Amino acid sequence: MEMISAKVHHEAAVTAQGLTKFFGDRAVVKGIDLSVPRGMIYGILGPNGAGKTTTIRMLLGIIEPDRGSRTVLGHARPRDGGDHIGYLPEERGLYPGMKAVDAIAFMGALRGLPRAEGKARAAVLLREAGLGHAIDQRIRRLSKGMAQFVQLLGAIVHQPELIVLDEPFSGLDPVNQERLEALIVRERDRGATVLFSTHVMAHAERLCDRLAIIAGGQRRFEGTVDEARATLPMRALYTPRTNGPGLAALLPAGHEAVGAAYRFTLPPEGIEPLIQTLLAQGHGIAGLSLDRPGLHDAFVRIVNQANAEVQA
Ligand SMILES: Nc1ncnc2c1ncn2[C@@H]1O[C@H](COP(=O)(O)OP(=O)(O)OP(=O)(O)O)[C@@H](O)[C@H]1O
Ligand SMILES: [Mg+2]
């Protein structure tokens, strides 16, 4: 596969400064800043209605921001990025009468890819995606998920530098979700920048080199998956040797029983003082494991905190 030219890109693939959008008198995106480094998989995460799609549409120049600015592949006017961008919009749609291979070649042609080359690449992409049987099928004969995958291939067939996918996993079965994850990684490894939105944390956790969490039209977090998880304290799973009376009173507030064990969030002073106390009081330690909550928990806490601040 052709690699993106090795010329050094110092500027980010996408930036946003104070992007703001009103619908009527309601601000739905409120001053979002972004910097998406080149060659990364970058996630825009947020609950339904957070403003992900509106942000993406402003980034691509499909709608104009009311305030703020953005750059796309170094261009102040996103549309100047044209043929170097691939985009899967949230609302899907292909010409139902077209064959899958032609639909992909057609989308490539809109981005400057010669039709014959587009057809050849489309056939390869379809076979790689396990959709070889659909090459000559008309779009109207494909299932919804298959048609969506075809549209996705149409967004990448011209090997763009920047790939923007709005909720690409929605509507795909688990096998196709895995295929899409592999495809996104492959495109990143080819040198492309992939920007995608989702509210499914499992995909984001596996894929994102960096991510932003937006809620209520504002950016609430920016960083790596590990940095997002580190916003939450570690959890402990503790099994006493003898579960005598008085044990519960020694454990941090909010602990819960899980069979013979207890799960709790580590107190700010850490686990050591608690261990000393448990041993001194004769409860012993039959088992103790610590783990870091996943991106799902970090996302829920960040979004809940955003909601609480808005209501306060
Ligand atoms: N054209 C429009 N006119 C009026 N309000 C709109 C319009 N488009 C979006 N909104 C509102 O803006 C807010 C943000 O919508 P947006 O589609 O950007 O959210 P999202 O994060 O993409 O959500 P989802 O996860 O459901 O796709 C929502 O409250 C929505 O109702
Ligand atoms: Mg959306």
Describe the structure.
This protein has 2 domains: 14-95 and 139-229, Rossmann fold; 235-291. The protein is 34% helix and 25% strand. It is built from 10 helices and 13 strands. The protein has helices spanning 52-59, 100-110, 115-128, 144-156, 174-190, 201-207, 225-229, 247-250, 272-280, 295-311, and strands spanning 14-23, 26-36, 41-45, 67-72, 85-88, 162-166, 193-198, 210-215, 218-223, 235-239, 256-258, 261-265, 287-291. The strands form 3 sheets. It has a 6-stranded mixed beta sheet with strand order 5-6-7-3-8-9, sandwiched between helices. The structure holds adenosine-5'-triphosphate (ATP) and magnesium ion. Adenosine-5'-triphosphate (ATP) binds at residues 23, 28, 46, 48-54, 90, 199.
Could you write a compact summary of the structure shown?
The mean pLDDT is about 90. This protein is α/β, with parallel strands linked by helices. The protein is built from ten helices and 13 strands.
Instruction: Say which molecules are bound, naming each kind only once.
Output: adenosine-5'-triphosphate, magnesium ion
Largest sheet: 6 strands, mixed
CATH homology superfamily name of the largest domain: P-loop containing nucleotide triphosphate hydrolases
Question: Order of strands side by side in the largest beta sheet?
Answer: 5-6-7-3-8-9
Strand content: 15-25%
CATH topology of the largest domain: Rossmann fold
What's the helix-strand series? EEEHEEHHHEHEHEEHEHEEHEH
What is the number of E strands?
Answer: 13
Q: Unreliable runs, pLDDT <50, ≥5 residues?
A: none
Tell me the count of domains.
2
Distance between the termini: 53 Å
Q: How would you describe the shape?
A: elongated
Work out the helix count: 10
Oligomer: single chain
In CATH terms, what is the architecture of the largest domain? Answer: 3-Layer(aba) Sandwich
Helix content: 25-40%
CATH class of the largest domain: Alpha Beta
Q: From the alpha carbons, calculate the radius of gyration and give it in angstroms.
A: 24 Å
